[in-house]
Amino acid sequence: MSTDPTTRSTDTDAHAHASVEAANTALYAAFEALDFRAMEALWAHTPDVVCVHPGWEPLSGWPAVRESWRAIIANTGYMRIRPSEVEVHMEGPVGRVLCIENLYTIMGAQAVHSRVAATNVFRHTPEGWRLVLHHGSPISSEAGQIPETEPGLS
Amino acid sequence: MSTDPTTRSTDTDAHAHASVEAANTALYAAFEALDFRAMEALWAHTPDVVCVHPGWEPLSGWPAVRESWRAIIANTGYMRIRPSEVEVHMEGPVGRVLCIENLYTIMGAQAVHSRVAATNVFRHTPEGWRLVLHHGSPISSEAGQIPETEPGLS
Asked: From A77, A139, A145, A153, which residue has the greatest number of CB atoms within 10 Å?
């Protein structure tokens, strides 16, 4: 579903790969629409789900994860969120997604763009791919480039 | 290997579970010892590995991940790092670990304790469990408790 030209892939199971990427796209569509029901439907409702929102303590288990999304969605008035640099890696019954969340919010009269590094892990279930892990971390605005490897060290 | 009383588990494959937890313990032992060779040996050296250090841009592929650890270890003089609240979830050939990294560093004359929420994903390989994803995010010192679910919303 993504038409982002920066989307890359490294696995060979094209169908599962596309399904996981579609689930990832649906996640951000639900979040941007502040649609709590859609967000609920995307998650596995199991004790082993994990969610780390940027700066938050980790949350474990569906009740805590669900409550966090309820609170976030209830307290967000406007937001645009666009994933970029989406990478999908298949690992048996699990699809791992790495992406950048580009968040656009309004603070005072200013539009603010912030970037979050996100890991999303989807599990294949009879009902489709369901989120079992979301981990988002703020990217420092000072984050720079890593120097090249020193050839002497190998 | 962990004797942390807060360690919890939710899967039934006790052997794989223990092996993944041991790999996770080894990860933090290598980091605390600033042992680059041990850190290298714990990772899968493949294009699909992913690493997000706290505040950093995501890194993809073994060369970039390797270089980041080389730079971090080369630039760290003293550190104690103790995982706590370790949770292991098995997902077929993959073990997901969620834990808190308790970091103790020295800034000026002060000991500083900081906390990082970490997701570590290990893949089962013929050589053992190898890290394919590490995602660490700083926990805000203001991070608080999530309110209880409102009974009216279900």
From this structure: A139
